[in-house]
């Protein structure tokens, strides 16, 4: 009975099973729907990412196109200038100036050299007068491994200047007027203040030669000197008025030779080195194979044989806003390193092979304007607007001396044997120190000295003579007193000015001697480069190859090449040779 009863127990509830099955199917349907939705969402996200990437790529392409367009516009404007054609159109407002702004070279807390390269309507920039001399006697302090700070008088008003090219008529035109500036480091449009020099009136200087097919009028300015009395004012000559034996002409440059002296030189352009900003300095390596230039934010190294760029040295850790001009460059004697001095008050020593920074020397309190390596390669001398010359030990990476003077230091040079360092200053003096002791042993100044700030000094190859260039438009050659080593308290011996070279029409910004000592070379705000005979003081040649101030000239140590750097955003390599007649 029991088994029979259990066999009659009814089956599980079929309704419940049916409901559970429906729930399971609904869950599976929802799961499939969710999966499809997630797949669709993933696809949409991927599509959005592709769109974002494409937009970014288009934006970058547009930026590059704009940069390429602006670069092409600059090149075309340069080409028009070189051909002497007037430029009547202007770039779009967003494109900015057609040329990069000039370096900040002024006097006082921030600058030393501003205003020396452009002028307004034929007159010089409004340059501030030098600060009054303090009443106490000059002090020549020496501090061991510690920077000095001197409180000077209130700084005078400062002027500004610019480099935008002005329209030229038949290849000639006055320099442009100054442009406004938002202040140091604010933007690439910065136009820095001027130096502490009296106001001067300057003639309009002719640009280098226009293209041959365009007639050139007589350059504006003073009347031409008669053919029988040219003197050293070679810049007054129009090449069209000279016989072929007294000139040399290229597509956008020309040279004239002094008719009063026998012509013994010839010159030719070897390479044109393109830059995107003002070229502040040029320097050859000791073996003559490379030339370095300093411009905005970078130093560049070029192969002298080919003219091709082989290295661009730029500190990527520096803030990208504003300008940072490299004021001075100098190869180590072995050619492995390049020292650079900049507006950020730092000296960087670059390993050229690895494009990396080996040393950074800090301590200067203002812009660094000049550097020079000792012949041993162990020491670097630096000059700054902070009124100091400093000597650095590259091997040990430390400061050796701080040599303080009364005004801003514009230029330094080491003697060939490394025993002496010379410096030019805004106070019109040239000083020479003994590098082994730090003692001041020469002070070259009035009555035979310069009448305005000294912007360049260079030792002669013999180590006994020194040349200096000044805002008084002259170059002076000094015969240094020998022996020069003196102990404190014995007085400072004064070298003798043996020759004054006069002929430039404006500030002399750079001077040097050829390796054989046979020629003095100078670069000027009058846009010219002149060769001078150091034994007679006669100008042999005047070269016009730039459209703005020649800021730097440098000879090759190994051959008859020399380099020039200019406010026209160009550097050039030239060759001089013995004239054989044509």
Kindly report the average pLDDT value: 77
Specify the biggest β-sheet. Answer: 6 strands, antiparallel
CATH class call of the domain at 237-578? Mainly Beta
Strand content: 25-35%
Q: What integer value in Å does the Rg equal?
A: 33 Å
Please, could you describe this protein's structure?
This protein is of the alpha+beta class and 582 residues long. It has a domain of 342 residues: Methylamine Dehydrogenase, Chain H, CATH 2.130.10.10. It is built from two helices and 31 strands. The strands form seven sheets. A six-stranded antiparallel sheet has the order 2-3-28-27-26-25, with no helix packed on it. A five-stranded antiparallel sheet has the order 1-16-15-14-13, with no helix packed on it. Strand 14 and strand 15 form a beta hairpin. The longest helix is centred in the first third of the chain and has 69 residues. It starts with a helix and ends with a strand. The relative contact order is 0.12.
Question: How is this structure best summarized?
Answer:
With 582 residues, the protein is an alpha+beta fold. It has helices at 2-6, 14-82; strands spanning 142-144, 247-249, 254-257, 265-274, 281-284, 290-294, 299-303, 309-313, 326-331, 337-342, 347-351, 356-361, 368-373, 379-384, 388-393, 398-404, 409-414, 420-425, 430-434, 440-444, 454-459, 465-470, 474-479, 496-502, 508-513, 520-524, 528-532, 539-544, 550-555, 561-566, 570-578.
């Amino acid at each position: 009975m029991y088994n029979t009863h259990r066999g009659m127990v009814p089956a599980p509830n079929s309704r419940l099973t049916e409901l559970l099955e429906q729930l399971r199917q609904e869950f599976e349907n929802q799961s499939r729907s969710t999966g499809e939705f997630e797949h669709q969402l993933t696809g949409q996200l991927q599509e959005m990412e592709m769109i974002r990437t494409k937009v970014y790529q288009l934006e970058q392409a547009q930026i590059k196109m704009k940069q390429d367009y602006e670069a092409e516009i600059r090149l075309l404007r340069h080409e028009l200038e070189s051909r002497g054609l007037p430029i009547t159109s202007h770039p779009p407002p967003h494109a900015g100036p057609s040329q990069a702004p000039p370096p900040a070279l002024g006097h006082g807390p921030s600058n030393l050299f501003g205003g020396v390269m452009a002028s307004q309507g034929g007159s010089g920039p409004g340059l501030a007068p030098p600060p009054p001399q303090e009443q106490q006697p000059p002090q020549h302090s020496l501090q061991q491994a510690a920077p000095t700070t001197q409180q000077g008088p209130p700084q005078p008003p400062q002027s500004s200047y610019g480099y935008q090219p002005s329209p030229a008529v038949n290849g000639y035109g006055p320099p442009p007027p100054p442009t406004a500036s938002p202040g140091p480091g604010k933007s690439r449009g910065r136009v820095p203040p001027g130096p502490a020099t009296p106001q001067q009136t300057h003639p309009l200087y002719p640009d280098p030669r226009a293209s041959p097919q365009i007639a050139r009028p007589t350059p504006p300015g003073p009347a031409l000197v008669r053919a029988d009395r040219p003197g050293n004012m070679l810049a007054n000559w129009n090449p069209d008025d000279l016989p072929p034996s007294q000139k040399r002409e290229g597509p956008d440059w020309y040279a004239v030779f002094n008719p009063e002296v026998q012509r013994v030189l010839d010159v030719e352009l070897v390479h044109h080195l393109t830059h995107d900003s003002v070229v502040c300095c040029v320097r050859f390596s000791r073996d003559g194979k490379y030339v370095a230039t300093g411009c905005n934010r970078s130093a560049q190294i070029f192969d002298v044989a080919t003219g091709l760029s082989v290295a661009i040295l730029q500190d990527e850790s520096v803030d990208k806003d504003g300008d940072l001009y490299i004021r001075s460059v100098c190869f180590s004697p072995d050619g492995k390193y390049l020292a650079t001095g900049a507006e950020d008050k730092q000296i960087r020593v670059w390993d050229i092979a690895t494009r990396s920074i080996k040393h950074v020397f800090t301590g200067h309190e203002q812009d660094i304007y000049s550097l020079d390596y000792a012949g041993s390669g162990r020491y670097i001398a630096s000059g700054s607007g902070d009124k100091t010359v400093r000597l650095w030990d590259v091997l040990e990476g430390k400061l050796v001396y701080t040599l303080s003077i009364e005004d801003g230091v514009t230029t330094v040079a080491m003697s060939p044997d490394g025993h002496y360092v010379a410096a030019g200053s805004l106070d019109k003096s040239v000083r020479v120190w003994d590098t082994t002791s730090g003692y001041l042993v020469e002070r070259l100044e009035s009555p035979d000295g310069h009448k305005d700030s000294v912007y360049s000094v260079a030792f002669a190859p013999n180590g006994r003579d020194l040349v200096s260039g000044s805002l008084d438009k002259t170059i002076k050659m000094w015969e240094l007193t020998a022996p020069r080593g003196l102990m404190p308290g014995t007085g400072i011996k004064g070298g003798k000015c043996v020759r004054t070279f006069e002929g430039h029409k404006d500030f002399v910004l750079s001077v040097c001697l050829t390796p054989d000592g046979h020629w003095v070379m100078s670069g000027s705000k009058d846009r010219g480069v002149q060769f001078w005979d150091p034994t007679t003081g006669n100008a042999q040649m005047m070269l016009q190859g730039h459209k703005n101030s020649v800021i730097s000239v440098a000879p090759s140590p190994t051959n008859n090449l020399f380099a020039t750097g200019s406010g026209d955003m160009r550097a050039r390599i030239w060759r001089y040779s013995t004239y054989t007649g044509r």
